[in-house]
Structures are given as C-alpha cells and as structure tokens.
Specification:
The chain is mainly alpha-helical. Helices cover 83% and strands 0% of the residues. Helix 2 crosses helix 13. The two termini are 40 Å apart.
Length: 265
C-alpha cells in the first residue's frame, strides 16, 4: 500500500498551526496594546493589582482542589472494583458517567437556583453559603465523564488482575493494594483526570453565573465588559497556565514511569 507523501502531512500540520496560532497571536497583540502609546504590559500588570481577580482565582482554585479530591476519591475505588469484581457493569457505569454531557448544565443550575430561592432550612443555607459548597457538587458531576475515561484507559493499560492477586497473596489489604500497587501504576491517568477537572473548573461560567457566584471565569467575563484588553490578557494567562500544568503533568507521568520501570528492573 502506497503511503501518502510527506508533503501532505506537513501541509495539514501547517494549516492546523495557522488555525490555532493566528488567533492566539492576534489576542496577544490586542492584549499588549496601550492606545496611541504603543505596546506594553499594562493589562497584565492590572491582573496582579486587581484584588477582585485575585479573590476570584483563589476561589476557583479552592473549588478545583475540592472537586479533584472528591472526584478521585469516588471514582478510583469504583472503577477499580467494577473492573475486578463486576465487569458486566462497565457499560452501565460508562453510560451513567455520560449523562452529565447529555444533560445541559443550565438545567441543573436552574434546579439549584429554584432550591436556592425556596429552601430555607439549615442544610440548604449551609450549601449555598459559599461558592465552594454550592459549586463543588456540580463540578464533581460534570467531571465524571472525563475522570472515568482517563482512569479506565489507565487501568486497561495494566494487568490489574495479576497485580491485585500478587499483592493480596503477599498479605496486603485492599487499601494497601489501592494506594501502593494500583495508584503508582495509573499515576498518569490520575494526573490526567485531575488536570481535566482543573481545566473544567477554570473554564465553566454558566452554572456559576446563574447561581450568582463570582468565580474566575465569571470575573473574566465581567472584566471584559469594562476592559477588553485586561479580559483578553486574563484569557491568555489562563491558557498559558493550562499549558504549564499540562507540561508538569507530562513530566510527572514520565518520571513516575521511569521510576516504576527502574524499581522492577
């Protein structure tokens, strides 16, 4: 079978690069504009000086951390148990985790807004007392599809049954097997799930806006209504932060694999 010429590969790569890099370059140029005075970093410096932006970013990072911890605590044992003991439920679990993609987030937000307006008991007041307690359950649900697929791919790449049986034969308990045998082998999958969850929290604006909570993406939108340059600078800074986290993820996953291979050797 004749292989396609390399020129087409480079042409497709060049078109993809233009498609992504030209808008980013235009956004970077716009964020550096300072009117008639030329170009400068005033918009980026404004990000550091604005206390509202710092508070919104801090709030979103707290929500992201809580969402990552809860999602992984729920999904890692569940996915491992289903693959080991109930493999027939794999399709059911996959279907359930797809529901957050099928159901529009605005529907969940509308239901939560109704509860926020009509329920006055102590539990409801505590739930809606801060963005952390109100938004984290939503983001846990929205993160389920990405978390499940990342963990499932990581578990498919290892011989889970053999690893668990070997550890159990050596006297390890279930939590020891999970923490010291399984997790080190799916480190990259866990980090990938955490990274996707972080990106989700830093990019979701619909639910937070409907429930009237000021998170980082909501603050970016509101900033754009008064200062377009600062808003674009914020968006680019968020994108750079995401890329940096992705590089850290790749580096950590690579180191983990090399350490594991070295230990086995």
């Amino acid at each position: 079978m004749r292989r396609p010429p390399r020129v087409w590969r480079w042409a497709i790569f060049a078109l993809a690069a233009v498609y992504f890099l030209v808008p980013l370059g235009a956004a970077a140029e716009f964020s550096l504009r300072q009117g008639e005075s030329g170009y400068g970093a005033a918009n980026y410096l404004e990000i550091a000086r604005d206390p509202a932006l710092r508070d919104a970013l801090t709030s979103s990072l707290r929500i992201a951390f809580a969402t990552i911890v809860i999602t992984l605590a729920l999904m890692v044992p569940t996915v491992v148990y289903v693959r080991l003991r109930l493999p027939r439920l794999g399709l059911l679990l996959e279907g359930v985790t797809v529901l957050p993609i099928v159901i529009p987030p605005v529907v969940m937000a509308a239901g939560m807004a109704f509860m926020q307006a009509n329920f006055t008991d102590a539990t409801s007041q505590w739930l809606f007392s801060s963005p952390l307690t109100a938004l984290t359950p939503f983001y846990v649900i929205l993160a389920l599809p990405f978390t499940y697929r990342s963990l499932d791919a990581g578990l498919r790449a290892i011989d889970l049954q053999t690893l668990v049986e070997a550890a159990r034969n050596l006297g390890a308990g279930w939590w020891t097997v999970l923490g010291r045998v399984i997790l080190p082998n799916i480190r990259t999958a866990v980090l990938g799930a955490a990274f996707l969850t972080l990106a989700l929290v830093l990019g979701e604006v619909v639910i937070a806006r409907i429930l009237l909570y000021v998170t980082f993406p909501v603050q970016v939108v509101e900033t754009g209504q008064t200062s377009a340059g600062v808003s674009v600078a914020l968006s680019l800074a968020s994108l750079v932060l995401t890329w940096v986290l992705l590089l850290v993820l790749s580096f950590a996953g690579g180191r983990g694999r090399r350490r594991l291979v070295g230990g086995i050797a």
